[in-house]
Amino acid sequence: MHGFRTDLAMEAFDGAQDARPCGVDVHRWEEGGVTLTEVVVTTDDAARALGKPAGRYLTMESPLLKKRDPDVRNAMATLLSEELSRLLPAWDGRSCALVIGLGNRQITPDALGPAVIDRTLVTRHLSDHLFPLSDMRPVSAIAPGVLGVTGIETMDVVESLVKLVRPCAVICVDSLAARDSARIGATLQLTDTGIQPGAGVGNHRRALTRQSVGAPVIAIGMPTVIHAATLARDALECLGKQAGDVDLSDAEHGLPGTALGEMIVTPREIDALIQDAAGIIAAGINRALQPELTDAEIAAMMD
Amino acid sequence: MHGFRTDLAMEAFDGAQDARPCGVDVHRWEEGGVTLTEVVVTTDDAARALGKPAGRYLTMESPLLKKRDPDVRNAMATLLSEELSRLLPAWDGRSCALVIGLGNRQITPDALGPAVIDRTLVTRHLSDHLFPLSDMRPVSAIAPGVLGVTGIETMDVVESLVKLVRPCAVICVDSLAARDSARIGATLQLTDTGIQPGAGVGNHRRALTRQSVGAPVIAIGMPTVIHAATLARDALECLGKQAGDVDLSDAEHGLPGTALGEMIVTPREIDALIQDAAGIIAAGINRALQPELTDAEIAAMMD
Amino acid sequence: MHGFRTDLAMEAFDGAQDARPCGVDVHRWEEGGVTLTEVVVTTDDAARALGKPAGRYLTMESPLLKKRDPDVRNAMATLLSEELSRLLPAWDGRSCALVIGLGNRQITPDALGPAVIDRTLVTRHLSDHLFPLSDMRPVSAIAPGVLGVTGIETMDVVESLVKLVRPCAVICVDSLAARDSARIGATLQLTDTGIQPGAGVGNHRRALTRQSVGAPVIAIGMPTVIHAATLARDALECLGKQAGDVDLSDAEHGLPGTALGEMIVTPREIDALIQDAAGIIAAGINRALQPELTDAEIAAMMD
Amino acid sequence: MHGFRTDLAMEAFDGAQDARPCGVDVHRWEEGGVTLTEVVVTTDDAARALGKPAGRYLTMESPLLKKRDPDVRNAMATLLSEELSRLLPAWDGRSCALVIGLGNRQITPDALGPAVIDRTLVTRHLSDHLFPLSDMRPVSAIAPGVLGVTGIETMDVVESLVKLVRPCAVICVDSLAARDSARIGATLQLTDTGIQPGAGVGNHRRALTRQSVGAPVIAIGMPTVIHAATLARDALECLGKQAGDVDLSDAEHGLPGTALGEMIVTPREIDALIQDAAGIIAAGINRALQPELTDAEIAAMMD
Question: What is the model's pLDDT at position D200?
């Protein structure tokens, strides 16, 4: 909308909340201490305006999430698991779900995806004849790394793995950027629109969607950072409204330091926050993918 | 000065660079691709105005530091080692230097101190009869943790260790906050004023200084973060200058999110940056404390 | 007994199980799927023979612990908490418990103590006037490092902290060595004899005991390694029994490699095992030290 | 040979050193303080006898490697780089080298491969038009994880990546098992026989060889562990030679503990040793793959 960068659909039009774009439906309700917001982008025009593919985006928010409140943590995992269960296809007794942890393991606020992979119950390799007799469903999980670390486009790696595994569903987990500092570490977003790195930049070849995969592609993310430039711009815009007609970009250039573009705003305790959130997301995924197993059985099978 | 939080003496009056406070001397020069700035706070009035104890502050800066330029890295380590050597007392053949890594190992941008401790050559425990015969000097190193993790005031732990070890010199390493984003990961500050957590808040009991210890207390730090509120305030101030008379605190409250106070601005690659900087600082410390050993001998003794 | 190194009292006479030394009482029972063994060393002669100070040693064992069985994990934490509660003094409304994590954070199988510290609820720094009004009890926790890393005797650091904090109880957590591979990661040992690094070597100055501290000193440990030389010797002894009179030390020298003395035997999954065990031990400690808080309240207070 | 497990070709016949198998050539020499041993397996019979594919195995050994001796470290990196350069094809100006880090990042002694990947200079993603004009050669690097963590056969993932990248050379790095404790952390093995997990078990489908890839497949490894059962068996065999005819398997069953099969023997300082070795191996790989870049240029490009 204004050059602000956010990965949350609900923030894409926050700046103009009163004037919610045509073609965007929003519902908000509460459940177990968690605020749910459903944003449905219904038209291509709205998708372009928001820079998000058409489809459904569900966010779950609670400020208590950051406080490690065990009730809210459990409520979030349950909501996530229920929502995932609705999106997953009925199991055919054979096919495998593929969980993909996007992001860079070496960069703390980008490590959410790999951290979830570390906690996902992986079962595909358990003797093949186990399925479909067992109560367990086959699951694979991998963190494919990022372009800067592997030299290979992440989407190329993911596509290779999809071809290899031929999953009945793909679940991608990633760290997100937000605009509102109160949402960092306090919000999960779930969408069935697939993953489209470069969406909005006009590069649609690499999208991983239900169409391209032939199976649902569900993305789960949590905002872990604000881009520093977005924060600065927000500060400027705020004041701009008061001050009337001033040149924002001039002011931006006046900020001390030139390295802002590469910097992020994040909570001091981001290391612990990532580990916590990974636990919740993995619990939601494990419950949804293994509906016949109890939490205790899932825990006992991890190693 | 203006409610901006910075641990760099050179930034404490940046906002009013043209009007450098009385009682503050500044010299700037270049050496091996590194810009050195010496700030000497000579009067109590100046100390109060800057919120920094009187004494000498030396910063070494190079934008290439973040780029892992090996020449600049080596130049920094050498400059640091030379400067430390000047500040250390002549060795009496017995007493021990104590290196203290301040900060929280579990919080990436706060982990510089502990990371330096992990790379410091520790020799005090090598058979006592080795000294003073050997070319090595006795060195201890410890990361005492932080109040929130131990429940014990860091300064209390440090004072206990000082009583125990009775060092001939104390070197403290810590992560710093800066104002200018270009200085994050690009600047080292060295000072002989000791460490005074709570300085400026009027709490002087806990200061660790040459007076309280009876030996030089040298602090080395690198800025790893900007406080998010400082960045927002800087953005607002910038614009304020253009826009004339507007109420900054009003604008500040208009920023999206209320959690800004606990957030930090930091480079995405902070994990790697901390490890890199720890290597440089430890190299500087090891060379200064073991003038009779080559880099290779120091490396070979680490394990 | 035979040059075998074990930190478990129950293993100190395993080699001669039939001939349990005079002055040693042993009881074994089961509770919640966990086997408990109480070894009481009642005489100085027995203490010398076993190389363990006189006192009470309680081990809790279950092979399911390694398998992450949630019921056994919870049963262990509960047993540990109950046992600790019995050993802790009635709380006087003021004094602080001090939890000490021995071992080296950088060496995986030695990192149990520091990992427990990372999960211990620390409260001593919460505003002093909170106590004794609150339901919470003041707790400090610290990992003092090891001699090779700090250059300072661990016991010297611990004694300094004891002087500083004047605790009403000290709980030390450490990684142990065992003889029986089945006990690695499957056994907790709890003792009220304090910690005596160098016990058996005749160095009694550094012991941290109820006498030296004036408060209970409780040690909790889990075996994480077997010394490779112990394993080799056990293998040799086994065969020796069959083969009759052969020279064990000759055979030992025939083993490929000379570096065995510095090597350890440990499970491949030791990294995960340490983290798991740290969670159980910390749960036991937190419950015992905060009897007025629920598990959920404890979790919510950690950050 | 005797049920002993070793990944070092030079150890596969150590037990019968005097009786080196027919079809195996061995040469030993010294260079820069490093002992080099070349084992060439020339016949299928010898390959079967040794349980190693026919081909050339080069080991570089120095006890000083574990001691972090900088000269030996540098000599090793240089030898490795020279040897790799000989095995790599002349560069065609376009094709990419693919470095694969085998092993499990979460298990310390198995993390060598991933740790090398973290230090490999990756360049394939730098703007395509850079090549072939630039002095740099395109390199990709990835750690594909292990079956137990991903649920996908490692070889399947690697084959997918090979199809995707179509490399001109594959370099695989892995942790190895040895028999002789003196070789742990002190030995590198390099071979051009490719990687054949399951070799010797008769499973040849998954081999990654020059034939299957159409490009050289070079494996680099360092022993990080001895299997505990191998150590015990070696101890028993040693004694067996003295004691005459005894039943080794009986004795083995007499060893305390039943969990030995899953245990490993490793140095206490394995965490540091892995990081050190990864630095040396990555230096060797980076130099060989980027012959036009200096060490300093390589370091400056890493981030």
Answer: 39
> Between residues D16 and A260, which one has the greater pLDDT?
A260
Q: Nearest Cβ partner of A125 from D141, D147, D303? A: D147
Range A192-218 average pLDDT: 74
Q: Where are the beta strands (DSSP E) in chain C?
A: 24-31, 34-41, 55-61, 97-101, 139-142, 169-177, 187-191, 217-227, 263-267
Decide: residue B2, CB within 10 A, 0-12 exposed, 13-18 middle, 19+ buried: exposed
Which residues from chain A sit within 8 angstroms of residue D139, using beta carbons? Answer: 151
Interface with chain A: mutation pick from D146, D153, D160, highest number of A CBs within 10 Å: D160
Over residues D183-193, mean pLDDT: 95
Q: Strands A169-177 and A187-191: what pairing?
A: unpaired
| C-alpha torsion D69→D71→D77→D82, nearest 10 | -150
* Interval B113-131: pLDDT, tens: 999 999 999 998 886 656 6
Q: What is the ipTM metric for this complex?
A: 0.87
- With contact defined as 3+ CB pairs under 8 Å, the chains touching A are B, C, D
Contact assignment for A70 to C303 by CB distance below 8 Å: no
The model's confidence at residue A2, banded by pLDDT at 50, 70 and 90, is very low
Residue D175 pLDDT exceeds 50 = yes
Contacts of B157 in chain C (CB under 8 A): 142, 161, 164
DSSP-assigned letters across all residues of C37-74: EEEEE-SHHHHHHHTS-SEEEEEEE-GGGTTT-HHHHH
Mean pLDDT, chain B, whole residue set: 85
Report the residue from C68, C269, C300 with minimal CB separation from A70: C300
Q: Would you state the pLDDT for residue B276? A: 93
User: Using CB atoms, which residue from D148, D161, D303 is nearest to A160?
Assistant: D161
pLDDT of residue B199: 41
Q: Which has the closest alpha carbon to C42: C28, C26, C29, C58?
A: C26
Which is nearest to C223 in space by CA: C191, C255, C179? C179
* Chain B partners (3+ C-beta pairs within 8 A): A, C, D
How much is the average pLDDT of D92-120? Answer: 94
Query: Which residues in B lie closer than 8 A to residue D296 (C-beta atoms)?
Result: 69-71
Say whether domain C92-302 belongs to CATH 3.40.50.1450: yes
Q: Using CB atoms and an 8 Å cut-off, which of residues 51-110 of chain C contact chain B?
A: 96, 105-106
Report pTM: 0.90
The predicted pLDDT at position B254 comes to 56
Q: Contact B68/D269, CB-based, under 8 Å?
A: no
Give the B window 6-45 contacts with A, CB below 8 Å.
14
A208 secondary structure, DSSP code: B
Contact A299 C68 (CB under 8 A): yes
Percent of chain B with pLDDT over 90: 54
Q: What is the mean pLDDT of residues C196-212?
A: 63
What is the pLDDT averaged over residues A45-54?
Answer: 88
Q: How far is CA D135 from CA C24, C166, D290, in A?
A: 74, 65, 8
Collapsing DSSP states into helix, strand and coil, what is residue D104? coil
Q: How many CA atoms lie within 13 A of D87 on its CB side?
A: 29
Residues 192-231 (D) with a CB less than 8 A from some CB of C: 226, 228, 231
Q: Is A92 helix (H, G, I), strand (E, B) or coil?
A: coil
Q: Above pLDDT 70, what percent of chain C?
A: 83
Q: How far is C246 from chain D (nearest CA, A)?
A: 7
Domain range list for chain C:
92-302
Helix (H) or strand (E) holding B170: strand B169-177
